[in-house]
Amino acid sequence: MQGMGxxxxxxxxxFNFDPATFKVGDTVSYRVNGSLEGFPFVGTLVExxxxxxxxxxxxxxxxxxxxxxxxxxxxxDYAQI
Length: 81
Hints:
By secondary structure, this protein is an all-beta fold. It has strands at residues 27-32, 41-48, 52-56, 65-69, 75-76.
């Protein structure tokens, strides 16, 4: 998200990029494969498991959850979107 605003403007999000310390409520930057490859997305972790995370990606649709990989920027499969 660096460089996406006005000069000197700080990103409004504070991300956790350390999968070893992921916890419920953390804000993460996640990726989506397929036609959305390369776009950054912001979500909140709602569940953290040994091999995956559950991400709430849209505050307007809190019931919608995405399963992501447990890595610094979780990967979500496009089929879930």
